[in-house]
Specification:
The chain has 300 residues and is an alpha/beta fold. The protein has a single domain (31-291), classed as Vaccinia Virus protein VP39 (Rossmann fold), CATH 3.40.50. It has helices at 31-36, 64-73, 89-96, 108-119, 198-212, 238-248, and strands spanning 41-43, 79-82, 100-105, 129-133, 148-153, 216-226, 229-231, 234-236, 252-260, 284-291. α2 crosses α3 (89-96) and α5 runs parallel beside α6 (238-248). The structure holds S-adenosylmethionine. The site of S-adenosylmethionine has 24 residues, from β3.
Length: 300
């Protein structure tokens, strides 16, 4: 069990703004930065600190993704939550941007990587970033109500990894790299929601976020990055199931943004031609942006 910070219930972690922005501002952005952020298609790059080694973690988003959400939806000092933190990318972004943050994951080895990444980050920081090994279902035990300014995560995409990798976006010999035909699930843990069928997955995700809703400040955003699935030559519209599940438990959908991954897809092979058009799934992912609506009732 990772325990660098003392883990108490509730956690001792800050959540108030420490910047000088006017009270009614949603973030610390300048008008120029705000204009740039209005484009709904996000092109993001991986940087040197990003880890793309699938042996360490099979599905990591770039630091740039949570960083953009943090800049858009929080102020310095506020509290960011990642319920499915993997190897800590969101915590790194929060550390860079002077935000408090807490992340949860089931797997101890991912949290060890998180801890090592955080220890290489900014030392002069007024905020804390904490990784906890626990099921996201238990998050309400750790955080006080109305304290979280942003929840951002890439959850497991419902059995997305539960099949042999075919490396379809690669050409020729490259396809048969060391990951070809391997199955790279996160874990066999029965609490891992990545092992569930799509509908059960969406419901389980909705239930986890139902527990998180009271912890959010009013109008706090909740961002979920995911992709649809192809299963037995059928499209499974996971993003639609997740939107429905989130609305069912009290969130309001604000934006659907697209993570444009064309800059990451090199050497595309030809498939489908000449009789079956299937878009290349790896060229984009969804970024679903919800918020806690102003009149949302919280637990008493
Ligand atoms: C797509 S990965 C997140 C990767 C992360 N964004 C990163 O960049 O490192 C999803 C993570 O959810 C975790 N997970 C699955 N079920 C969980 C649960 N019930 N509670 C907490 N974490 C869970 C998996 O172990 C996996 O690391």
């Amino acid at each position: 069990m990772i325990q660098v910070e003392e883990i108490t219930q509730p956690l001792k972690i800050g959540y108030e703004r420490i910047c000088q922005c006017p009270a009614n501002h949603i973030n610390c952005l300048t008008p120029k930065e705000w204009i740039r952020s209005q484009v709904a298609i996000w092109e993001l790059s991986y940087e040197k600190r990003d880890i793309r080694d699938k042996k360490i973690h099979p599905a990591v988003f770039p630091i740039a993704l949570p960083a953009k959400c943090i800049k858009l939806f929080t102020h310095e000092g506020e509290l960011v939550l990642d319920p499915f933190v993997g190897i800590g990318t969101t915590l790194l972004a929060a550390q860079d941007l002077n935000r408090n943050a807490v992340g949860f994951d089931l797997k101890e080895e991912y949290l060890e990587v998180t801890q090592s990444r955080l220890s290489q980050g900014r030392l002069l920081n007024d905020t804390k970033q904490i990784a906890i090994q626990d099921d996201a279902r238990n998050i309400p035990q750790y955080l006080k109500e109305e304290t979280v300014a942003l929840a951002v995560a890439s959850p497991p995409y419902s059995r997305f990894l539960d099949k042999p990798r075919l490396n379809k976006s690669m050409r020729g010999d490259l396809r048969q790299n060391e990951h070809y035909l391997t199955i790279q699930q996160y874990s066999n843990d029965p609490n891992d929601i990545g092992n569930l069928e799509p509908i059960a997955f969406s419901k389980a995700l909705g239930e986890i976020y139902r527990g998180i809703l009271p912890l959010l400040k009013t109008k706090a955003h909740c961002v979920i990055n995911l992709n649809d699935l192809w299963w037995e030559n059928k499209r499974v519209p996971t993003h639609i199931y997740v939107v429905e599940a989130m609305m069912e438990v009290g969130y309001e959908l604000r934006n659907i943004l697209i993570w444009d991954r064309r800059n990451l897809v090199n050497r595309v092979g030809i498939f489908g031609w000449p009789n079956n058009y299937i878009k290349l799934g790896t060229t984009f992912e969804y970024i679903l942006d919800f918020w806690k609506p102003p009149h949302q009732k919280t637990r008493s």
